[in-house]
Amino acid sequence: MNPTEYQFTAEFAKKMDEDDPLAKFRDQFYFPKVNGKQAIYFCGNSLGLQPKTVKSYLDKELSNWENLAVDGHFHGEDAWYYARKKSKPALAEIVGAHTHEVVAMNNLSSNLHFLMVSFYQPTEKRNKILVEAGAFPSDQYMLETQVKFHGLDPESTIIELKPRAGEHNLRTEDILAKIHELGDSLAVVNMAGLQYYTGQLFDIKAITNAAHAVGAYAGFDLAHAAGNASLKLHDWDVDFATWCSYKYMNSGPGNISGIFVHERFAERPDLPRFAGWWGHDEGQRFLMEKGFIPMHGADGWQVANSNVLALAAHQASLDIFQEAGMEKLLAKSEKLTGYLEYLIQEISGKSGILEIITPKDPAERGCQLSLHIHRGGKAVFDEWYSQGVVGDWRNPNVIRLAPTPLYNSFMDVFSFGLILEQSLKKFA
Ligand SMILES: *Cc1c(COP(=O)(O)O)cnc(C)c1O
Predict the structure, then answer these.
(1) Of 206, 216, 245, 218, nearest to 95 (Cα)?
(2) Is 140 in the pocket of ligand 1 (CB under 6 A)?
(3) Atom 15 of ligand 1: nearest residue by CA position
(4) What is the rounded distance in angstroms from the CA atom of residue 363 to the CA atom of residue 361?
(5) Is 147 left (phi over 0), alpha (psi -120 to 50) or beta?
(6) What are the φ and ψ backbone dihedral angles of 250, each rounded to 5 degrees?
(7) Which residues does the annotation say bind pyridoxal 5'-phosphate (predicted)?
(8) Is 138 marked as binding a ligand?
(9) Which among 27, 193, 199, 202 would be 20 to 30 A from 240, CA to CA?
(10) What is the pLDDT of residues 114-169, one digit of tens each?
């Protein structure tokens, strides 16, 4: 949509909502209240809202546990033994993969470690890891301790890429040049897909190609990309990836993560891994014998038996994603975030109070906009919050706002515009 078509009027927002084929999904979520009023919830980047169906999905498993107890593992079509299978079609659609390339398991930080065990095999010559500077702390700790685990020095082994002076985002050309420069010293690129602080969506395909061209692996942390950006992990030839389900995937606080492992590794029992019985050949699992035989594909990276209650809440949300469809979600997302961007520019563009640091090109971002606060600091965030706007504050000076296409409306964005307009008077 052309920005010149946007308008800062209630009529415009209302019309956009009327024409929105996904508008009905808003009613399928619970919204929190702030100061007694339904919040303008722009924090799906941190914790997605609860689908109203979650309780019934959980209830079903609680009933199975109540009535079947241990027999629930093998009883009927909901047998817990096969619980991992149900989420595969939706996950495959969301990240652009084949079903055997994805599986829901563990939590994100744990999965990063498990995947690095397989894909980070440093040698004397090839041992460097490339990551964007300012990566999410968990990812930084993971890389630091992985490197130490192999007896190497994090300082010289982890290469952090910074934007050019005066810029907020990395240029793809600079990322590719760095990969080329590192050449056969580079073992693995392990970056965010979408950077949590700036909201920049990286060119995963180009980065993967460049990594492969120098003989390195390419893996991505998709915490902020899964369910929020167009992903084609299989076609882009990505080696491995992992994500969480509680941000854009609305599956509940701390809920289960998922992994992607490209199908070329589906039958690679030689790849190192830290294994557990749930990654072992399903047919032979209960023979209780020695000798780990990995399952085909991503399933072979499972460690522990499936967390059935976690999967139930996850499934409630995934079923909504399947009904809505990623393509429609992404089409709406571009318009909705474009509208937010337009209003911020219109209302506060000249005030000098804030600046959008997320890339302008919709192909380089998801729904999140990161606002650099130049004046007023966290008081700006507190003022908006007191008016019902739930975003989040990230030190040292960023407010993240993420209108999500599943449950946010154009009217939400318009209402925020009014609050922004009022608040500027306080911080002028
Ligand atoms: C949210 C987030 C995490 C959180 O990790 P958990 O293991 O789910 O606690 C890790 N990395 C990134 C990039 C994130 O955005």
Answers:
(1) 245
(2) no
(3) 223
(4) 5
(5) alpha
(6) 50, 35
(7) 108-109, 136-139, 221, 224, 246, 277, 305
(8) yes
(9) 199
(10) 999 999 999 999 999 999 999 999 999 999 999 999 999 999 999 999 999 999 99
